[in-house]
Write a structure and sequence with these properties.
single chain; mainly alpha; 4 helices; 49% helix
Length: 92
């Protein structure tokens, strides 16, 4: 406990949404939780920081209309809705 495994997992779940112009996947994520440590409020905090970071990176860059749309579409709500969460209680 306390090493940051959950924090790393949540950060990776958010980072997969990076726009393609930043060499990201602009994708979705499946998060499998075996400990019950996934806290949506914390995910939203990390997602908010990520959205702000991407917006800062995009500001002042010459972006195509498609790239600008990726930035505009990147919201906390969009990230949260494309992290598919599964809680595992048993394994067999």
């Amino acid at each position: 406990p306390g090493l940051g495994k959950t924090q790393l997992g949540i950060q990776l779940a958010v980072n997969v949404h990076a726009p393609s112009f930043l060499d990201g996947c602009n994708g979705h994520c499946i998060y499998i939780d075996s400990e019950g440590s996934f806290i949506p409020e914390r995910v939203a905090e990390i997602a908010n920081a990520f959205v702000e970071y991407v917006q800062r990176l995009a500001h002042g860059r010459p972006l195509s209309a498609e790239q600008q749309q990726e930035v505009d579409d990147l919201t906390v709500e969009a990230i949260m809705s494309s992290i598919y969460y599964f809680r595992v209680h048993h394994y067999i």
